[in-house]
Amino acid sequence: xxxxxxxxxxxxxxDLFSQVIPIEGSRLNYRVVGFSYADRKIKGCRLExxxxxxxxxxxxxxxxxxxxIFALGRKKIVTxxxxxxxxxxxxxxxxxxxxxxxxxEFHHFSTLPYGDSSGSKTRLRIVTNNRLADHNYFFVxxxxxxxNAQGDPVWFLPDADVLPFVKTGLRDLKYSNGTMTxxxxxxxxxxxxxxxxxxxxxxxxxVAHDTSERFHHELxxxxxxxxxxxxxxxxxxxxxxxxxGESAHKDSSNNxxxxxxxxxxxxxxxxxxxxxxxxxxxxxxxxxxDYFKNSEIFSHYLPDGKFPPxxxxxxxxxxxxxxSVIYVGFxxxxxxxxxxxxxxxxxxxxxLPFEVGSETCSELFCGQxxxxxxxxxxxxxxxxNSMDYASLPKIEILKEVAGAGLAEVxxxxxxxxxxxxxxxxAYNKKNTMLRGxxxxxxxxxxxxxxxxxxxxxxxxxxxxVSMGHDNGKLMLINENKEVLWSAVLETQxxxxxxxxxxxxxxxxxxxxxxxRGLIWSVKY
Length: 524
Fold this sequence. Notes:
The chain is about 10% helix and about 40% strand.
């Protein structure tokens, strides 16, 4: 896949255009293309790009879509018009005498077709754009696509570019310290702009003591250490001292087993957080069971002696490398742990104590699904607000107060502005359905319908929001709670069918400078 990046190397004076990349006929999975030339002495060179496949001067000139002088550093980036097109390009260099012009031969490449061969289509429909967001781009998990602020796809990850045994399930596609990281089903990976896999961990299951680590939700390449940190899962068997169920040996419906000594054990899922070095080897690990086994959760039993059916897997983390502190979020019990790195000691617990049969939520968050840090070290949460089913999610910025937990600094109530009448009607019907359910059923349904989402501060102090599974709305909001940019991810399931909102696990914002870094950091 090394041929996918357009990189032009010119050598003087022996042979001005003897080494050019890409190889003739390359097919690119992006429209934002980087050109560069190598010789420091050359001046006054311009790039010419035409739409179409040409071999003669007259036809080429008629179809030129971009031309410009190479910038300082002998680099230039061009956005070609469309996917699924052929392009012809060349370099023209004027020496000291304007009449002495050197032109390269014509070279050709094409962009891959974008879209689903089944006939379904997707789009990012722009609702609000005050033009202040034009320097930003947006990764969207559901479509494996990078969009510009006008909603145009400019990069995508084709099915053929992922591991052959991975079919679906991309999560957490984002810019991550010079490259891109994502999780494909159970496969964390770092990829470059071309889709080349730059890094993968050894998934040996050494932390979980299983056949794999069962990775999920979030992968981040750390900025200072260059290590990779990712969430995983382990299965634990917890002893039941007073179980008196009817099962003689095994109660598979409740994950209960009995050993040869007649002791009953309950199988439960807990989370892990694992750090890897650049070779893919484990350098550090933390297990949530080490905390939970001594917490109030393990003091609760149901009438027959089983533990309550709780789900305590993590779904988010963020690492303050400078202070050596990690925040880990547990959405399904509305809890956040602050742990010290590398000891793993729990420094603080945010959230109310667990209660059997109800979702325990603090006044500040309920069903939170992402954790990030603002520039001054406050916590930024995407609060799914999952038990208040008549309300939409909220964005919370919370300050840690010594000895007093968390205090609200800033809050934003999400809206459905931009959705059409049918989508709003569907949302209202869901709320009507929830109001007619018992509390336990509401807990189950609300949990499913309000998952996903992310909120992160951008360098200028604005907050980027992706509203998660319930819908595919993206927003950029400034400190005064003004919407600078918003869009709705939509799909058309069949030709001429209606456009309906498409859910996504999350989306991530990328600046133009970060895009430039992705383009120029590709290794061959």
